[in-house]
Structure formats: structure tokens, C-alpha cells
Amino acid sequence: MSATVTYDKGQTAELFCSVTDLGDRTVTWRKLPNRNPLTIGPTTWVKDKRVHIEHVPNSSQWNLIIENVNASDAGTYECKVSARGTPFVQKVILEVKDIPVKRYPRIEISGRNFLKQGEDVHLQCNATMVDVNVDNLEWLKDGKPIADIVKQKRVRVFTAVSLSPQLTGSISSSLEIDNARVNDSGVYVCRSTGRSQLAGVKLEIKPDTNNSKRAENIQEYTGPATGPSVHLQPEYWIIALLSTISSIFIPSVR
């Protein structure tokens, strides 16, 4: 008669074997139909470090321990004590349940979110493990649907849907903004149509300080002149400058 024990994948399995009046005989464990022993007495005969014997001295228990069990460990194990006449044999059937890893829906946004004015914005939203009821991703800016500004030619949204036979899959959506402006800054949210998944990112567009400085420098020299203005071409400015230097450093010859 065989006993059956069931464990989940990854648990430590304990196969019980009780032997009374053992005397000088030895308990041997093996997995059928393999003839090679797993353990003989308290000693492990396989290189698998997960396998060992649990025995308390002077007790009748010689239990086989298998740590971190997996599907390949399932099968029939035999606890045997050799003796003259009819040997003692006890069989244990080990069942291992393969518990699938539970996956949860996930959504995330990637891409640069700190840019300078004039650069292009590329935000990528990826949603995984979506169900059949989710057929699109929606973008929002500061809580308002971005569809209101998609009408601008410099703002575009691209979406791709992929479903598996198990009615789960992934959706990706790209938000692109050409020639970003300071007022494009804000909080951008990507969410599924069922609103079961959402992710957000703060986009910051910094002003182009170089352009601002150039504009300020130009303004400094565009104010009204205090005297009559004389407009000279660049080449005449150079000639006049050289003539001034010559008159200062070159002594006159009499």
C-alpha cells in the first residue's frame, strides 16, 4: 500500500518512513524505477544537496527530505529494509503542483522628461497583461485629454495593440511633440481605456537661455543715438581702427 503526499513547487517535501525493531539493519531510500539508492542509513548517496535523511537517534522515523521540490521530483519513492525472508518495503508517492507565477497588469512611461525649448519630445507608454476589454491607451496633460491639442501638426500619437490567444497582451502608445515650447510643460498621464492602469510623468521644458541672452545683447545697441549716426561697412571699421593704431605707435618722419 502506498501513501501519497502533495507539495507545491518550491516547498520542502518530507516523505515519512517508520521502521521498528531495526536492529543492525539499514534503511535505504530510492526513487523507482531507479535502482541506485538516494540514501543508505543516514548517508546521502547522490550529489543533490537538496536530498537528505531526517532521523532522530533511537526513533523509528527515517524520513526522506527533498528541499525546493520541482516537477522532476514527482514520482514513487521506496523506503526499504533488507532482511532475511520478506524485506520491509514502504512506498510513498510524491506529487508536485506547479504553481504558475501570477502576473499583474503593468503600465509605465519612458523617455526624456527634461528638455530644452526647441527639442523634440518622445514619450513611450507600454501596458502589459491587458485584457480583451482594453483596446487603447489615452494620454492626458494636466488632467485634460491630449486629444484637444493633437490637432496641432507638431503633436502626434501612435498606438499599437498586440493580444495573445489567452486574451491578454500589450499596448504601446507614443506621444511625440516637435519643437517643444515652454507651455508644453506639465504632467502627462497615460491610462488604459478602462482606467484600470495608469502612469504619469512630469515634463519640463526649459527656456533657451542662449537665445534670450543674444536678444538682450542686441537690444543694448539698438537704442537711439545721442549724436548724428554714421553707418560704415565692416571693412571700413577695420581700416579706421588700423589707421588709429598706426598714428599712435608709429613716429612721424621729418
Q: How do you describe this structure in short?
A:
With 254 residues, the chain is mainly β. The chain has 2 helices and 18 strands.
Structure description:
This protein has about 250 residues and is mainly beta. It contains 2 helices and 18 strands. The protein has helices at about 210-220, 235-250, and strands spanning about 1-10, 15, 25-30, 40, 45, 50-55, 65, 75-80, 90-95, 105-110, 115, 120-130, 135-140, 145, 155-165, 170-175, 185-190, 200-205. The strands form 4 sheets. A 6-stranded mixed β-sheet has the order 1-9-8-3-4-5, with no helix packed on it. The chain has a 5-stranded mixed β-sheet with strand order 11-18-17-13-14, with no helix packed on it. A 4-stranded antiparallel β-sheet has the order 10-12-16-15, with no helix packed on it. The longest helix is centred in the C-terminal third of the chain and has 16 residues, at about 235-250. The protein is rod-shaped. It starts with a strand and ends in a 5-residue tail after the last helix.
Task: Lay out the secondary structure.
Blueprint lengths: L1 E7 L4 E3 L11 E5 L7 E2 L2 E2 L6 E4 L8 E4 L8 E7 L6 E10 L8 E5 L3 E3 L4 E11 L5 E5 L2 E2 L9 E9 L4 E10 L8 E7 L5 E9 L2 H12 L13 H16 L5
Parallel strand pairs: 1-9, 11-18
Antiparallel strand pairs: 2-7, 3-4, 3-8, 4-5, 6-7, 8-9, 10-12, 12-16, 13-14, 13-17, 15-16, 17-18
